[in-house]
Design brief:
By secondary structure, the chain is an alpha/beta fold. The chain has two domains: about 190 residues, Rossmann fold (3-Layer(aba) Sandwich); about 150 residues, Rossmann fold (3-Layer(aba) Sandwich), CATH 3.40.50. It is built from 14 helices and 13 strands. The strands form two sheets. It has a seven-stranded parallel β-sheet, with helices on both faces. A six-stranded parallel β-sheet has the order 10-9-8-11-12-13, with helices on both faces. β9, α8 and β10 form a beta-alpha-beta unit. The termini are close together. The mean pLDDT is about 90.
Length: about 350
């Protein structure tokens, strides 16, 4: 059966990698003349290809509130829509999957969910353990009712298969992120060794680990220059943990200039789905050190394309940074190896979403 209409459920339209992926996928559907109804708050038509085929429900209400409230409101609007619409339009959930699954089953709709994180890591390292464990068990129940579950990394896929009875429901589609794979001419300081981190300033990203390493290594290497680009609730806390040797910059869409000036990128996260910042670092040929969270091995081709350290191991991170500083030619070889394989994350991956949902 071929559908030329889809419903996309994404209650909280936030800046960041996940939203950029959503925009890319929606624009691909629009170019294929698919009618898209997006349930999302704080979205805007300007993000999408000019088309009469997109309708945003929730975008006019600029609510700045918790995800829980936005999830509830988006679920309510989706319920009203499904009551009035008897067509068998498939639903794709990019966020808050459980209410989308429940409504899809109540109204006999196909439901596809894109799981953007590794579920065991997200549960283990959550700030609120009780809620995380509760949500984990709800996922075991309701994810099994989904028609397909899209994983975005091998580790995420393997984790999902541990809780899904019908293993064939779980499929891997890498993020449609890059348009091309250009070569760049860099303008890097020869006097300073510039280290970069980029991401939301939340506990998930574990930037305190890097700050601890930089505080120590700055006493040994006088040429280290560390920049942390991001916004979030932990900004004041992270600043207080720094010895004053870290440059904090607000989040920006234009990260190219930061990568172009950097010698090393560090991803210290507790958990991810597929870290887009690590893809960008590789794209800009910046050597990387990353914790062994979901998606890292996909991007760095095991440890052939970069350096992988255990999660939350401060001493090992210190030693690895020091190793890269003293063996930079080796680090450059690794990132160039990974860059050759970045085609796995090309925007052409949108076609797999289209074939899965539209073209049976």
């Amino acid at each position: 059966m071929t559908f030329k209409k889809i419903i996309i459920f994404y209650p909280s339209f936030e800046r960041g990698g996940a939203t950029n992926i959503l925009i890319t996928i929606i624009n691909f559907f629009l170019k294929k003349n698919v009618d898209v109804t997006l349930f999302s708050f704080n979205a805007d038509y300007s993000f999408f290809t000019k088309s009469k085929n997109i309708r945003i429900i929730g975008s006019k209400t600029k609510i700045k509130s918790s995800r829980w409230l936005l999830n509830f409101l988006a679920t309510y609007y989706l319920l009203k829509f499904l009551i009035l619409n008897i067509d068998r339009i498939p639903i794709i959930s990019f966020q808050s999957h459980i209410p989308a699954i429940i409504l899809a089953k109540l109204f006999n709709k196909k439901i596809y969910i894109r799981n953007s994180e590794e579920i065991f890591g997200a549960t283990r390292y959550s700030d609120n353990k009780f809620n995380a464990i509760l949500v984990f068990f709800l996922k075991i129940i309701f994810y099994n009712l989904a028609d397909k579950i899209i994983a975005i990394s091998i580790k995420s896929k393997n984790s999902l298969k541990k809780i899904i009875l019908k293993k064939s429901k779980v499929i891997l589609i890498y993020n449609p992120y890059l348009i091309n794979n250009k070569k760049f001419k860099f303008k890097k300081s020869k006097k300073k060794f510039n280290i970069l981190c980029i991401g939301r300033l939340t506990s998930q990203k574990n930037f305190k680990l890097v700050i601890g390493a930089i505080n120590y290594l700055s006493l040994i290497y006088s040429n280290i220059n560390f920049t942390l680009v991001g916004s979030g609730p932990l900004k004041r806390t992270l600043k207080s943990q720094s010895d004053g040797n870290i440059k904090f910059l607000n989040w920006t869409k234009n990260v190219k200039k930061h990568f172009m000036q950097s010698h090393l990128f560090i991803l210290p996260s507790y958990y991810e789905g597929l870290p887009n910042a690590l893809i960008e670092a590789t794209y800009y040929s910046v050597p990387s050190i990353a914790t062994d969270c979901s998606g890292v091995r996909d991007i760095l081709i095991g440890n052939k394309g970069g350096y992988i350290v255990p999660i939350d191991e401060l001493n090992k991170l210190k030693r690895k940074i020091s190793f890269v500083i003293n063996n930079y030619a080796n680090a450059k070889k690794k990132v160039l190896y990974a860059k050759k394989r970045l085609t796995n994350f090309n925007v052409s991956n949108c076609k797999y979403f289209y074939k899965l949902i539209i073209k049976k």
